[in-house]
Fold:
Amino acid sequence: MNSIRTKLTGMIALTIIVPVIIATIISFWYVEDRERERGLEMTEWSLERGTRQMEHYISDLSRLPTSLYADHDVLDILEYGPGLSLRETEIEVRRALLAMYLSREDMAQIQLLMLEDMDSFAAYKMKVSPRSKKEPSAVQRQLLNNPKSRVLLEASHPLIPYHDFGPIMTQEDVVTLHFRLDKIETDEPLAILSLDIPEDLFLKHLAN
Structure:
């Protein structure tokens, strides 16, 4: 009887229990594999969407440096220097920079670095700084050293004023877009326009 019971138990195990266990394992692997595929598809979709949003946002911001090309007075200053009147030059550049700053709600700070004499102007907190001398930062030099690139995205970093506007009341992280402005005829670098965008606003635009 014990032998028969053992054989029956073994047959039941072979015909019912083992297939159920195998089916369960296969189903688990299948579901896990499908979930992994779905996860990969969602990640790929998110990356593609984020890339498209970033390209669209950067394309929108590229209108700012383009506006300087449309301003003949500022373009002449970038190409030929300040001319006879440093005061008039400063007024023209500061006017253009303030108009640019006020045209966007997502700008924390803007710098225009003119490469001819390393003259720098900055817009921050509704003000435009007087002309001062600045050397290109390491990231800006990277942009200048790559003749095939006209824009460079600098990863999130603490906001550092380009000029002495007084103490910073709030600390915030910004993402910076550096645009190289070239002479149209020769592609000779004339200036660098740097746009500081608060990190939270930058990510918000990418998510929309």
Observations:
- The longest helix spans residues 2-61.
